[in-house]
Amino acid sequence: MNAIVAIWFMIAAACMTLSLIHLTVWLRKRSWFAHLAFACTSTAVAAHAICNLFMMLAQTPAEFGAAMWWLEVTIFMFFVGSVSFVCTYLKVGPIWLASLVVGLRGIMLVWNFFSPYSANFTRIDHLERVRFLGETVSVASGTLSFGRHFGELSEAGLFAFAVYATVVVWRRGDRRRAILVSGSLALFMLIAAGQAWLVFQGVMVAPFYVVPTFIVVISAMGFELGSDVVRAAELTTTVQAREAELRESERQMELASSAARLGLWVWDMVGDDIWIQPNGRKLFGVGRTEQLNWERFLRIVHPQDSDRVQRLVQESIDGDSEYNAEYRIVMADGTIRWIAARGCIDRNSEGKPIRMFGVCLDITERQRAELELATQRDELAHLSRVTMLGELSGSLAHELNQPLASILSNAQAAQRFLARENPDLVEVGDILRDIVGEDRRAGEIIFRLRTLLRKGEVDHQPLDIDALIQDSLRLIRSDLINHSVTCVTECAVSPKMIWGDRVQLQQVLINLVMNACDAMTEIARSERRLVVRSFCEGGSCRIQVVDSGTGVPEDELESVFEAFFTTKSHGMGLGLSVCRTIVSAHQGRLWASNNPDRGLTMHIELPLLTS
Amino acid sequence: MQSPEAIIYLVDDDPPVLKALRRLLTVAGYSVKTYDCPQHFLEQHDPQDHGCVVLDLSMPQLTGLDLQRELTARGSSLPIIFLTGRGDIPSSVQAMRAGAIDFLTKPVNDDDLLDAVGRAFAQSLAARQSQMEMEQASQCLAQLTPREREVLHHLIAGKLNKQIAADLGTVEKTIKVHRARVLQKMQVTSIAELVRVSLLLGIEPAQS
Fold first, then answer.
1. Which ipTM did the prediction report?
2. How many Cβ atoms from other residues are within 10 Å of residue A597's Cβ?
């Protein structure tokens, strides 16, 4: 075994190894064509080395010619491999140039088939023995064939192609690849082709150096591809890490939403499929694998709320507004839970709704607490109302006595009329009509009283503020008289409708008027003047109760609304605090201000009812 | 029993009540004037009015008690019957002290009201009679000469003619004539009667 055989075999083995590695890569990842192209190039170089070795070791021209014949096949393979590698890996090169280069070499290959001494020679006269790397090798001497020119042309073409690719890739900014891949290909192409040309021209009597030069090109290409594989591997690791992070964040999100009792949901409106987080499913009492769609969802919603939820969703779709609903759901065991849901619509480029996504939250506890609070508030209001009416009882008795007195006197007058010899029946008829009228009046007073004393559900309905003021003043007319207070109402003509509970708002008004009366006990009777005013301002209705009393120190204007604040010897000091609670529950405001001259004004502001 | 000009003045701020009471009192045979506002009544009131006032205690602006005070201040002798929606003891005490006939609670029974009205009218009548008597007496008194008035003072002191003559420095016979004139002018027949009328007029007997 001499040195040349050893080196050439080693080169062939190295190239073959590289080729196999990248072939394996390609087999596993078929879309990576660069690996296949490289495997092809690498195999070509390995085969080329073997053929080259046989040429050097040939003892007869026939042996040399046969080896060279095969050599030509490996060169063609090299051309195909390297051109497609540059095309696929660097993604450059005009296809026509690539095809031209391969085509020229193809002519060379076809020529080769028809020539026993390869496409290069028409005839090999004899073999010369020359010294090369300390060994004696064979070098051919004969007549060059015309086909040899196609080889030269294709070699020049490959060189040009490589140079072009180098420039393009260099300009693209990827200088390392430009030099390592296409640059090295161009350089060694120049060396190999140049040396071959010198040998063929007889200038140089030596074997071809093609193989050792091409191992450099192969190495450069292999190195690049290898780095890519390494980079891909790194990328995979990163992706895996990211995926783990994503999973972790999803898990955290689920934990957080589970802790917050939030359920995320997405409703695919096209396919009518509702995706909901596991804890959301638990919230709605839906199994982990059960298919959920719009119809199934509506079946869970409480029948009384179902229409409203549908309307709200439709409004959100039509108006492109946020979906915001609070509704009840009925669980499988019949228990009712309150859900608050928010969501928004996702539309495609044509504006058609395709998805709706949002969150839902169990608000049963909150709702229960609110209900309890409302009940307590109403109970306190009732208690305060009863106390207030207790204070008013004397006046109310007087108010009720008026019709009763009138009825009794009328009836007794009628008895006397009838006792006469010729009773005046027309007069008696008049009397009876008056009695009926007065009885109604008494009945109305009792009805009003009973309404105020009632401890029923709060009943919100549209109310005319002026009627409310008149009703309230009628009930406390006697109290005003007892306090020698002159009461004036100033109601702006426009009808002022609000949404509220008649009883509770009457309670507020009566309370304010009673307070005003109490505030004026210290001043001369002729100056006890009370004004009840109503008007609209912006979107709200305003009521003012103005007294001419002693007023309140500026720094106490707010504290009068605190519970147990009182300036009176009687009462618990709950009146105004309850009044404020009631007005607030009506989305309104209640505050006090001192008048410029004297006395206090109580202001109530309530939102006007819109259509 | 009531004199023709005796009228019941009804004052109540509640028109239906006013109407019902007017009916009742009218059918009971009284003349009734109604006022739904105490001010109107005061404006039209004449101290010489005769009868009684039926007054609601609680009215806006001027209460029944205010009205009572005002009437007294104007020298009216009209008796007052109060009607009230509630039995308010301090008010009733105050009203009764100020000379009210009665303090009735609404709804008022017709007999109670008519009874009170009857008493009020009796008081009004008595007051009117004593007033007329006094007016008559003072007219008589005005007819006396200064000398006769002097004799009157001594007569009601229970002195004998002789004593009076000595006190006035004249003869008994002259005194006798004066005495007859005084009795005649004062329209009385006895000294006892003269004493009663003199007391009514507030004439002091002469000091001995």
1. 0.77
2. 7
